[in-house]
Design a protein that fits this description.
The chain has 256 residues and is an alpha/beta fold. The protein has a single domain, classed as TIM Barrel (Alpha-Beta Barrel). It is built from twelve helices and eight strands. It has an eight-stranded parallel β-barrel, surrounded by eight helices. Strand 1, helix 2 and strand 2 form a beta-alpha-beta unit. The radius of gyration is 18 Å and the shape is globular.
């Protein structure tokens, strides 16, 4: 029995457009609610949300068999952290602050068993192999690993063409907020030079064999990024959705 097919990776390869949402509550119940909403993919965020290995594992558990595919964002691309995330069942990782082809190549190797990579061979006791229920897991898992790298600095944009040439990278995700900050426009990704940089980057990614991704929290911006070539778009953040709805409700009754 081979490793499970990664439907998100397959959909990107087909050219499907996929819409997702950020999961930042670090709670499986909230993530399960998002899965019921019908998003194609959900980011379990370990960079800016208070997630750890156990909370990520719990959320992967409730998403098992769900139509929404889990994308785990780690805070860094360390080999040991990647190994743990894959062993608890993640098949798709989003790694921030990638600024070179060499860095991307290291990430590809970290997600693959030898001889193609350096992933530690200990999945027998892990969810990834269904606790040794998939006898061919180690010999078939490499093909189902999906790597998304975040390019969100000027240095990353400068190296974008080289990153796009790295075999094993499935998608490149542009980080508008960090890019704006690095370009001297902290907190404002709507300024003209940042938007021009995003448009150029999305076009270059879309013209390659990689999928282009990005986050946009308002429909107009998301539609613009889609038209510029974004294939997988995050269109919401659960924490922000709750905060906005709660503030609006409170204001309606307090001020109205």
């Amino acid at each position: 029995m081979p490793a499970p097919t990664n439907p998100f990776k397959a959909a990107l390869a087909r050219g499907d457009r996929l819409y997702g949402c950020w999961a930042g509550f670090a709670e499986p119940y909230a993530t399960e609610v998002l899965a019921e909403a019908g998003f194609d993919w959900l980011v379990i965020d370990g960079e800016h949300a208070p997630n750890d290995l156990r909370s990520i594992s719990a959320q992967l558990g409730v998403l098992r068999g769900a139509a929404s595919h889990p994308v785990v964002r780690l805070p860094m691309g360390e080999v040991w952290a990647i190994k743990q995330a894959l062993d608890i069942g993640a098949q798709t990782l989003l790694i921030p602050m990638v600024e070179s082809a060499a860095q991307a190549e290291d990430l590809v190797r970290a997600m693959r068993y030898p001889p193609e990579g350096v992933r530690g061979s200990g999945a027998a006791l892990a969810r990834a192999s269904r606790f040794s229920g998939i006898p061919d897991y180690i010999v078939t898992a490499n093909a189902q690993m999906c790597l998304l790298v975040q390019v969100e600095t000027v240095a990353g944009l400068d190296a974008l063409d080289e990153i796009l040439g790295v075999e094993g990278v499935d998608g490149v995700f542009i980080g508008p907020s960090d890019l704006a900050a690095d370009m001297g426009h902290r907190g404002d990704s709507a300024v003209r030079d940042v938007q021009d940089a995003i448009r150029d980057a999305l076009a270059r990614i879309a013209a390659s064999d990689k999928a282009a991704g990005i986050l946009a929290l308002d429909p107009e911006t998301a539609a613009r990024y889609r038209d510029w070539g974004a294939q997988f778009l995050a269109v919401g953040i659960d924490v922000v959705l709750l905060a906005q709805a709660a503030r609006a409700l409170a204001a309606r009754w307090r001020d109205g």
